[in-house]
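quick one, 63 residues, struct below
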Amino acid sequence: VRKMVHAGQEVVIVGGAHALHGHEKLAIAVSKALRGHSLQETKTDGRFHVHTKTYLDGAVLKE
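---
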């Protein structure tokens, strides 16, 4: 994060958790906005590895 901040800017990171089971519409929106990106690679010894990162698509979440 430090590399993305311009001179004179301040970053405040607020952490927390919120249960979605009590907020049906919010839970549906988060479910629809979940995306995954997979990277497949073959190691030199022939083993195959798949790395997956899950993220929220902000554009879909805003809809």
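The longest helix spans residues 24-33.
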